[in-house]
Amino acid sequence: MALRLITAGESHGPGLTCVVEGLPAGLRLQAEVLNRDMARRQLGHGRGGRMKIERDRAEVTAGVRHGRTLGGPIALQIANRDYANWEERMNPWPVEVDVPEVHLPRPGHADLVGTQKYRFTDVRDVLERASARETAARVAGGALVRAFLEALGVQVRSHVVQIGSVHAPARVRALALADFEGVDEDPVRCLDPEAGRAMVGHINEQRKANESLGGVFEVVVFGLVPGLGSHVSWEERLDGRLAMAICSIQAIKGVGLGEGFELAGKPGSQAHDEIFFDEERGFHRQTNHAGGLEGGMTTGDPLIARGAMKPLPTLTKPLRSVDISSHEPAEALRERTDSCTVPAAGVVGEAMVAFVIAEAYRAKFGGDHIADVIAAVDAYRERIGWAARSSS
Q1: In the predicted structure, residue 51 carries a pLDDT above the cut 80
Q2: Distance (Å, rounded) from C-alpha 67 to C-alpha 246?
Q3: Is 299 helix (H, G, I), strand (E, B) or coil?
Q4: How far is Cα 200 from Cα 194, in angstroms, rounded to an integer?
Q5: Within the chain, where are the H helices?
Q6: What is the pLDDT of residues 284-335, one digit of tens each?
Q7: How far is it, in rounded angstroms, from Cα 173 to Cα 7?
C-alpha cells in the first residue's frame, strides 16, 4: 500500500493544500491534535513578524467523516491570513493594477536558478513556492501519519542540539520518551536549559548584527519494530529515504543518522553495537551508535536522525547580488524574515521522518482498516519474538 504526501501553495498566496493518500480506514483523528502540531511549527525564539500574523489551522475538506479516516485521499487546507496584504501581488488571476517585478535574487535561495530554469523574469514566481512557508502543509500531513504511527505504538519527538556556534552538551545516556516532556516550552526547544539560554543569547546577539543563524535538530523515534526498510535494493534502504526526506526541508544541508559523521573518526570496535540475547529481552543491543538502523533496516532501537540547517538567506543587511533585468550590481531582495528557525525545523523534521516511517509500515504490513494493520504488526512481532518494548 503506497503512502503519498503532496503539497501545493505559495508563501503569500491564498493558502496551502496538503493531500495524503494511502492511510487505512478507521483511523481516529482529533482536530485539536492536528492543529497542535501546526502551532508547534510556529514556535521558537528568533521568529519574525509573520508569526504574529499567521495562526495556522488545518481544515479537513476530504477523506474524513466523524473523526475517522475513510481510506481515500485526505485533503487539508491551511489559509494564509497574510494574503489579505498580498492579494494584488499574489492573486491567481490578472489584476487591474501594475505589479512591479522583483529582479533581486538572494544568495543561498532558489531565486536565481529558478528564474533560469523556468524562464521567469520575476523572482517572485520562484521564491513564493520555494519558501519554507510550504512546510506548514507538510506538518499538517505529518500530523495525520503521526496519528497512524501512534495507533501502532510509535512516538516521534525532536529537540535542538545546536544553534550557530552554541552546542548542547553531549548526553551521558540514551534519551527516553519521558525526556521530551516540556521541550516545546523551552524558547529554542533545547533539552538542556543552560544551553537553551546560551542559544537565545546567541540569536539576540547575531540578530543585532543583522545576521541569521542555522543549527542542528535531532529527531528520535520510539517503539519501532525491527525490519522496516530493506537491504535488497538501494531505493528500499531506509537510510536513503530518511536522508532524502530530511534534506528536502528548506535550508537543510546535511543529515546524520545515529552518530553520523562522528562514526567516521572512530575505530570499528567503538562504532558498532554489539548484540546480546536473553530469554526476557530476546536479541538486544546495549548501545545505539547506529541510530536504530543497520543494513537499511530498523533494528527496533530508537531511530535517531539529525538535520543540519544553514543560516536563512534573507538578511536584514542584504548580501551583494545582480539585478537579473539590468545585470547591474545590486543588493539582494530584503523581505520580512526570521533570524533563526531551527526549533521550527525540528517540528518539520518530525513530520518528514514520521512520513518515511509510516510509508515503511504501510509497505510492509498493508491493511485496508487500521485494525488489519495492528493485527499484522502483532503477528509479525510474535513471529520474530519481539515483545512489545517500552518506549520509555
Answers
A1: no
A2: 30
A3: coil
A4: 10
A5: 31-40, 87-90, 111-118, 124-130, 135-151, 193-208, 238-247, 268-271, 342-365, 370-384
A6: 999 999 999 999 999 999 999 999 999 998 888 899 999 999 999 999 988 7
A7: 38
Mean pLDDT of the region 212-223: 97
Per-residue model confidence (pLDDT) at position 334: 82
Place of cell 492579494: 87
SS (H, E, C) 30-62: CHHHHHHHHHHCCCCCCCCHHHHCCCCCEEEEE
Percentage, residues of the chain above pLDDT 70: 96
Give the model's confidence band at 55: pLDDT under 50 very low, under 70 low, under 90 confident, else very high: confident
Domains, the chain, ordered by start: 4-384 (3.60.150.10)
Report d(CA 80, CA 53) in Å as an integer.
Answer: 9
CA separation (Å) from 52 to 121, 137, 192, 213, 385? Answer: 32, 18, 27, 20, 51
Average pLDDT over all residues of the chain: 94
Counting every residue, how long is the chain?
A: 392
- H-helix or E-strand spanning residue 278: strand 275-278
pLDDT digits (tens, 9 = 90+) for 343-377: 999 999 999 999 999 999 999 999 999 999 999 99
- Does residue 140 contact residue 78 with C-beta atoms inside 8 Å? yes
CA diameter of the chain: 76
pLDDT band per the 50, 70, 90 thresholds, residue 391: very low
Q: How far apart are the first and last CA of the chain?
A: 30
Sign of CA dihedral 41, 47, 50, 52: positive
Give the C-alpha separation, 277 to 285, whole Å: 9
- Over its C-alpha atoms, the chain yields an Rg (Å, rounded) of 22
Scored b (16 or more CB within 10 A) or e, 166-177 reads: bebeeeeeebee
